[in-house]
Amino acid sequence: MPLTHLNARGEAAMVDVGDKPTTQREAVASGRIVMQPATLALLSDGKLPKGDVLATARIAGIQAAKRTHELIPLCHALALTKVTVDFDLNWQESCVEVSALCRLSGQTGVEMEALTAVSVACLTLYDMCKAVDKGMCIETIQLDSKRGGQRGDYRREHAPAVSAENEQSVQGAEVPSVHVKFLAELRERVGDSEFMVPLKQLEQGDIAGVKRALQAQDARFSVLNEKRTLCAINQVMANDAAPVTDGDEVAFFPPVTGG
Amino acid sequence: MELRVSIQTAPFDMAHGYASVLDERTDIGAVVSFTGLVRDFNETPDVIGLTLEHYPGMTERTLEAIGREAGERWALNAVTIVHRVGELAPGDPIVRVLVASAHRRDAFLACDFIMDYLKTQAPFWKKERSAQGDYWVKERDSDQQDAGRWS
């Protein structure tokens, strides 16, 4: 695939998006900043010298998303409809996990805005905490997913875990597949909780394709035709048109009844 | 906003969560709490217990998203959501939501919102036991209508 930001002579060029159709675009990016456990505790307790660290980093991330075109040479100025920046304190790995979502109804994608929001939120976290911890490390700033646009949807596959146990299971699953789970009442009606469905069995690479492949195997999967049956991909609600890729966890379940 | 989510088999008492929500702060002006209990009548008149199943991972993620959305809609200081899973008996507390804010209206509305979304989005399923046998609890249209009030 050619790089769209280069012209025929290999020079940098801004893409004319005037002819592209307007669609709903969304991108999610993430990153993290690893710090000393004591720094994380100070941050959590609001006891760092510069004050409310997360609130400041959130505003910085949102402002940065809006100004991405001023930082990245060939980016268009976009009228974002939504920007959120969220933080999770991960005590096990002593880091702050940062994620950003950008949304737009327009003619070009918003992944650079989401990545910029994460980057600047991480830099602001560093600035707010550096008085007590200069060894902090900003890591794994990456695009997690994007929706909308001509190139279609993208979702990052989970990075393979590094433990020996997991390496074996990754090697064991040589055939690209999706991992299908049935939960609650559907598990009882199907009679089993987990199935592997090889991608090559799918006529189309989406949830509708997974349903059809299962139904072609056995009549017990007719529960998938019921309108009330719900679906999640990698633990996020999804519909029949949602694309699936190798390693995805696809769960089918009835309407929820908690509370 | 401080957001805490817990999925647990362990029981909790009626005071659960207040101390961590207040956290010795003096900027909180209101705390609203909701506690859901297991009834001894539901789809049958003589429920003797229930089993709560959930989808580990997605449950936590969903409840955190609901809590965060509440924090975007109203000015909140803290949200705590606790939900039990496993075996429960009539009278047992099953879910607890605590919302702290500077002024009461935000906390009342956010608590109501969180429960409506929890009941229609969080992946929990109840299987009730009764003298007539066990059965999966059916979803209710009224829960969907309640959740629709916020869109």
UniProtKB/TrEMBL annotation, chain A:
Enzymatic class: lyase
SUPFAM superfamilies per UniProt: MoaD/ThiS (SSF54285), Molybdenum cofactor biosynthesis protein C, MoaC (SSF55040)
InterPro entries per record: Beta-grasp_dom_sf (IPR012675), MoaC (IPR023045), MoaC_bact/euk (IPR047594), MoaC_sf (IPR036522), MoCo_biosynth_MoaA/MoaC (IPR050105), Mopterin_CF_biosynth-C_dom (IPR002820), Mopterin_synth/thiamin_S_b (IPR016155), ThiS/MoaD-like (IPR003749)
Protein family: Belongs to the MoaC family.
Organism whose genome encodes this protein: Halomonas dongshanensis
Keyword entries, A-Z: Lyase, Molybdenum cofactor biosynthesis
Name of this chain's protein: Cyclic pyranopterin monophosphate synthase
Free-text function comment from the UniProt entry: Catalyzes the conversion of (8S)-3',8-cyclo-7,8-dihydroguanosine 5'-triphosphate to cyclic pyranopterin monophosphate (cPMP).
Keyword Lyase: yes
Basic and acidic residues compositional bias, start-end: 148-159
Positions annotated as active site in the UniProt record: D127
Gene: moaC
Binding site for substrate: L74, C75, H76, M112, E113
Oligomer and partners: Homohexamer; trimer of dimers.
Catalytic function, reaction form: (8S)-3',8-cyclo-7,8-dihydroguanosine 5'-triphosphate = cyclic pyranopterin phosphate + diphosphate
Pathway: Cofactor biosynthesis; molybdopterin biosynthesis
The protein's Enzyme Commission number: 4.6.1.17
CDD domains registered for this protein in UniProt: MoaC_PE, Ubl_MoaD
Automatic annotation (TrEMBL), chain B:
Matching SUPFAM superfamilies: Molybdopterin synthase subunit MoaE
Domain of life: Bacteria
E.C. numbers: 2.8.1.12
Record's catalysed reaction(s): 2 [molybdopterin-synthase sulfur-carrier protein]-C-terminal-Gly-aminoethanethioate + cyclic pyranopterin phosphate + H2O = molybdopterin + 2 [molybdopterin-synthase sulfur-carrier protein]-C-terminal Gly-Gly + 2 H(+)
InterPro entries: MoaE_sf (IPR036563), Mopterin_biosynth_MoaE (IPR003448)
UniProt keyword terms in alphabetical order: Molybdenum cofactor biosynthesis, Transferase
Family statement: Belongs to the MoaE family.
Protein name, entry field: Molybdopterin synthase catalytic subunit
Species of the source: Halomonas dongshanensis
Taxonomic placement: Bacteria, Pseudomonadati, Pseudomonadota, Gammaproteobacteria, Oceanospirillales
Gene: moaE
